[in-house]
Specification:
By secondary structure, the chain is mainly α. It is built from 17 helices and no strands.
Amino acid sequence: MKYQKLQLHALLVAALLLATACGSIPSANAQTDTTVESVYQRALQSDAAALQELQQLAATENAFAQDRLALLYIQGAGGVQKDYQVALQWLQRSTKAGNGWAAFRLGFMHEEGIGVDRDLPRSKEFYARAMDLGNTSAGFNLAQQYLLGPADQRDPEKAAAWLIRAANGGLAAAQLNLAGLYAEGTGVKQDYAAAAKWYRAAAARNNARAMIGLGRLYEEGKGVPLDFAKAFALYEDAAKLGEAGGLQMLGQLYENGHGVPVDYAMALDYYRKAVDAGSWTAAGRITNAYKFGHLGLPQDKALEDHWYETYIRLQLVKK
């Protein structure tokens, strides 16, 4: 159990740092930010002079330098010891100076209890501040709290409101989730046309799950004209991006004869490829095929058990 907790903590810190790889919010001082980033990258390589330069820049209230210095303390890298308290102090100064990623990190640390006691109300405050500073990822995380947080704190309408802001800011993950809310009628009035709009926006940003969501609307004729050819193309595009669900949905088209001739062999081929890509749903469809003698397969208890075990294994490791 101790190892699992340590492993979880490492994963949370990795998630906290992921924003660094995603870049920073466009700044009016883009050239200065580029210089700071260069200094930070050198400091990561234990360049003592670069660390000193980063510290000097942070001391001049350079918000970006303060954020990057905080990251060194979070990682225990660049010649400094890991120290969440020092990191928090620099993040607070960076946030005060108007850095949206610093505010986002403060929200995440309070949400997950990294360096501080877990405090969801305080986390919400920092996420809201980050969103006001243009950080759409903060709006997405805030929406997730209102959707998936403690039962007494859930508020689908507030979640939808934050997702709308983040989606309008161009965040594909927010666009995908907002489309789902419109499709389900959660926190907003059910509106398949609006769902299609946001799925399309996220798909344009190469979000494979949005391609599948939009494809399903075309396959069912909800919010868009019924169009199996467009559904097929969208599922195929998702599959090319490595999304197992795209392969599974192609299999279902062949199983049901939607826009293509019924072809159980092709359906099974796509289902097996989907399983190889991690789809537990596809494993479940093959399990049922052997259980009930569907898709041109004979009833076979041994193979049913084999595929059911695969289904359970993939369920346990699903993302």
